[in-house]
Design a protein that fits this description.
43% of the residues lie in helices and 9% in strands. The protein is of the alpha/beta class. The chain has one domain. A four-stranded mixed beta sheet has the order 2-3-7-6. A hairpin with a 2-residue loop joins strand 4 and strand 5.
């Protein structure tokens, strides 16, 4: 995956609070085994940590960094995105939101932008306070995506994904899939979705995978406002393979087999490896969000 070297990155879409402390309150999820279990349960759930039972129950404002955030200093152009992980994530956020803004407009709708918050160790959100153990998540309460960039190391080391820049992009695009669901009302209609292979919880996650594939289909044709050219200039089949590998690595069956030694479909919340790949492929193949109706 390559970005246009001359494109200007919009860092206003990312709030970099790495190294900050939560003002007041505390997160109750620690590291070690407890943190790992929390990560397995919360991975890509797409809702705030309060719904996972991973918070102290208080609603905390997001942490704020002192001084100029690192991404504002370092992530200015597509060239930066081609050389730094955090700048790459800024560029992916820009590309994903550019696409959905244009797609909503095409459908006579209005897209409301959602910031991504880069944090380290712990963060305060409108959904409660959480630690990095939760993994990436979307909080409907403040309509923000939360991401500790060290998660991508966990994706490789603990979950066996091959990694790569597009595997990271898939994670971000999946979380923005939940934001699209929030804007269209799908999340509110699916609250309390339960567990099991045919539960609404699984259908919500698979639809977010499909929406990630829809964005990937259009990623190299969605124009960046600063240049009038696509921000992403190259997306190869090898990149898509990395994304599919990441989707499979966080399938419920793969996670259960790896961490508990058996597969229990009645407790699924995200779908199997095969299902997650299938729906990402459907979005990528068609480029049409209407083909992402996992509830039918």
């Amino acid at each position: 995956m390559q970005f246009d070297d001359d494109a200007r990155l919009d860092t206003s879409e990312v709030q970099d609070v790495r190294g900050s402390r939560i003002p007041g309150g505390r997160a109750t999820v620690g590291g070690g085994v407890v943190g790992l279990i929390a990560l397995v349960l919360g991975l890509f759930l797409g809702v705030g940590p309060d719904q996972l039972g991973l918070t102290d129950g208080s609603s905390q404002p997001a942490a704020t960094a002192s001084g100029l955030a690192e991404v504002e200093q370092s992530c200015r152009t597509g060239q930066d995105a081609n050389t730094r992980d955090d700048c790459r994530m800024v560029a992916v956020v820009n590309s994903v939101q550019d696409y959905w803004d244009q797609e909503f407009a095409r459908r006579d709708g209005t897209y409301t932008a959602s910031p991504t918050v880069f944090f380290s160790q712990q963060v305060g959100t409108a959904c409660g306070s959480a630690t990095s153990a939760v993994g990436p998540f979307y909080c409907p309460g403040d309509r923000k995506v939360y991401l500790d960039l060290e998660f991508f190391d966990e994706l490789r080391s603990k979950f066996g994904a091959s990694g790569g820049p597009f595997a990271q992009a898939y994670v971000v695009a999946h979380e923005y899939g939940h934001h699209v669901q929030d804007l269209t009302g799908t999340l509110s209609r699916s609250q309390g979705g339960g567990t099991g292979a045919d539960s609404n919880s699984v259908k919500v996650e698979l639809q977010a995978d499909c929406y990630a594939g829809v964005w990937a289909h259009h990623a190299t044709t969605t124009k960046d406002e600063s240049t009038g050219r696509p921000l992403i200039t190259s997306l190869t089949e090898a990149d898509i393979t990395d994304g599919l590998d990441a989707a499979a690595a966080v399938g419920d069956d793969r996670i259960q087999e790896r961490f508990q030694g058996r597969v229990t479909p009645e407790t699924w919340t995200h779908g199997s490896a095969q299902q997650r790949q299938q729906w990402f492929r459907e979005g990528y193949r068609t480029g049409d969000m209407a083909r992402c109706d996992t509830f039918r």
